[in-house]
Specification:
Layout (H helix, E strand, L loop, with lengths): L1 E12 L2 E13 L4 E5 L6 H8 L7 E6 L2 E2 L5 H11 E4 L11 H11 L4 H14 L15 H13 L5 E5 L7 H16 L3 E5 L3 H4 L4 E6 L2 E4 L9
Parallel strand pairs: 3-8, 3-9, 6-7, 7-8
Antiparallel strand pairs: 1-2, 1-4, 4-5, 9-10
């Protein structure tokens, strides 16, 4: 699904060049559940932004579903993102003036999905995530865990092939975080490829591979964990 070759990211400052990512080679297969770990400033969120095509200021080669992202223009990258990528952020990124249903409908409207189909997808999502009773509530009326569930539902309502998550449980208490991670595991079991950034070894245990970053370098290439039958 994903091939990165010699991907690098830097910023030019008055004192010289500051490197964020160096010589990143990474392969992600369809169905993987990969965790990116490392200390603060290691480049984890930057790598996730590149994978999600939210950052275009990098060098190297990036192929996604066979498409050479490094050769695509801004509009073509945006189209690829909308069609195939869902993103879950630590800070939820819900619109406060929209209800739960309206927040779920938003990404479908960006993809020009017909209104009748959108209504059906929203209804299915509300049922799947057990949020039917909360469909007319606003984010401020929900707990942090409930808001994050809405954010996950919003990210996957368009049935993306790739789900990216940046510290998805960082603002949640332990039981809420566990609920979100179990949801990720179910989505992965259904075939969604997931790449998450986390500091939590407990969260990493839900995945199949860990990629360690240190000062922008891959410090320890991810090796599949042993699984039991």
């Amino acid at each position: 699904m994903i091939q990165l070759r010699n991907v690098e990211r830097f910023f030019d400052t008055g004192s010289g060049r500051t490197w964020v990512l160096r010589q990143i080679d990474l392969d992600v297969q369809a169905g993987d559940f990969i965790t990116i770990m490392g200390p603060s400033g290691a480049g984890k969120s930057t790598l996730l932004a590149i994978l999600g095509m939210l950052d275009a200021s990098w060098t190297g080669e990036y192929r996604f579903l066979g498409q050479p992202v490094h050769d695509l223009g801004r509009k073509a990258r945006a189209t690829l993102n909308k069609q195939h990528v869902g993103f879950v952020f630590q800070s939820y990124h819900l619109l406060d003036d929209l209800t739960v249903s309206e927040n779920l409908d938003l990404p479908l409207s960006y993809r020009n999905v017909p209104s009748a189909e959108r209504a059906s997808l929203v209804a299915d999502s509300l049922d799947r995530f057990q949020m039917v009773a909360k469909k007319d509530l606003y984010p401020s009326q929900l707990s942090g865990g409930q808001q994050q569930l809405v954010a996950v539902a919003q990210a996957v309502i368009g049935k993306p092939k790739l789900l990216l998550a940046d510290e998805p449980t960082g603002n949640l208490h332990s039981s809420q975080g566990e609920e979100v991670m179990k949801l990720f595991k179910r989505l992965n079991d259904e075939g969604v490829t997931i790449v998450q950034v986390t500091h939590s070894r407990e969260n990493a245990a839900y995945g199949t591979r860990i990629v360690e970053l240190f000062d922008g370098w891959i410090a320890k290439p991810g090796v599949p964990r042993a699984t039991t039958a």
